[in-house]
User: What shape does this take?
Amino acid sequence: MSVRVRYAPSPTGLQHIGGIRTALFNYFFAKSSGGKFILRVEDTDRERYSDESLNDLYETLDWLGIKWDEGPVVGGPYGPYIQSERFDIYKKYAEQLVKEGKAYYCYCTPERLEKLREEQIKNKSEYQGYDRHCANLTEEERAELERQGIKPVIRLKVPTEGKTTFHDVIMGDITRKNKDISPDPILLKSDGFPTYHLANVIDDHLMGITHIMRAQEWIPSGPLHVLLYEAFGWDVPVYCHLPMVMGKDGQKLSKRHGSTAVREFREKGYLPEAIINYVTLVGWSLDGSTEFLSKEQLEKCFKMENIHKNPGKFDYKKLDWFNSQYIRMADDERIASLMTPYLVKAGFVSAHPTAEEEEKILKLVKPAKERMKVISDIVDLSRFLFVDEPVEDETAYIAKGSDLEKTKEALEKGGKILFDMLRDGRKDEEIEEALIKLSQELEIKVNGVFQPIRVAITNSQVSLPLFDSISLLGLDEASRRFERALKMIKEK
Ligand code: GLU
Ligand code: ZN
Assistant: This one.
């Protein structure tokens, strides 16, 4: 049996880290087992649906380079792959269940159901939910309700006795007493819209889905889905519920922890390969130690058995680390073109950079690679090259463990060493050594010398490596800024 898996998001919000992790696991599992990865849009909740979410889904998968074998846009033999285009199918199958006595029409008004709910709460009733009022209507009663023009919903008959079990590859057997499963959930609403359960089960069956890999929060739906498969007489696919994605504090990852929308990561300048690599390691590992895995490698080596049972932690710092590593590994031209929009937006270069500006950007790449965690960092790192805003607050010049007097001395003596040696054409390492020696003489930390010099030249505490900054600015301009800062500090 060849593997067919699906990612079935509801376009009711931006694609987030947890959703994308589900997509990646499905995609890699399909690829590594020679199967098919299907995209299905579960847009039956029309109130929460938005076009923006649907576009975001396509854009995000596209940006990650995740191609679906079947689904919207590309089509396939089991289409359409958008649930709102499949309503007749759901209706037909729901009616079939009614004919077979496995589901029934319910004519209860929202008012009746609301009253029922209130009473159950008031009486602290053990029994919660629908009271199966319409389960045993006679033909005459039904005909009368139809005559009154009441549009019914279709409800599944859930057995009141016994248990339902489903097997999960990761969690093992999960069993629930039937009496604890929602009493006779709605499958088809009165307006002909299917509920999630009905559409999901029918589509997974009709689309030949062999393995259902989805977030653990769907486990409670499992027994009900199994009852539906049984009612239809269909084979139950293999279930594999994925471990939760948690923040560092062990709570479910949410906006409280930071960005969760993939779009926000993209906008800050994370590279898709870093997101793919790191997100796949949240709740999965190859061998417990391998960290760097390209998309191509994961397409070969991903195994379902290696999915963890315990929740995965999403660590923003670790993602930053991966991203900075991938930035270093990327081609200079690619990094230059990724940096450009940020530089344009900051007003540092023109909207269509001139050849001269392009050259300047390209020169920035090597030193920027040493410092960027995300591509948008380039704005703060390179501001000094495009605007000259000297730092007047002396505390910015004073390194930890140093003081104003020592800083004045470090700046004066360090600057002399630095510029004399640069003019003599001495090597960076030699100059560095001389500056370190100076720090020892002044009995301060190395940074006590480097920090004031760096702030003087780059107007900032976050900047590119010192020698690169000087060479990007040009020696004369660097020295001019240095003298200006020295004069200012000496007057403090
Ligand atoms: N549409 C559901 C979601 O948004 C799909 C759940 C499932 O994969 O069965 O997560
Ligand atoms: Zn009813």
In short: The chain is about 50% helix and 10% strand. The chain has a mean pLDDT of 96. Residues 331-386 form a domain with the Helicase, Ruva Protein; domain 3 fold (CATH 1.10.8.70).
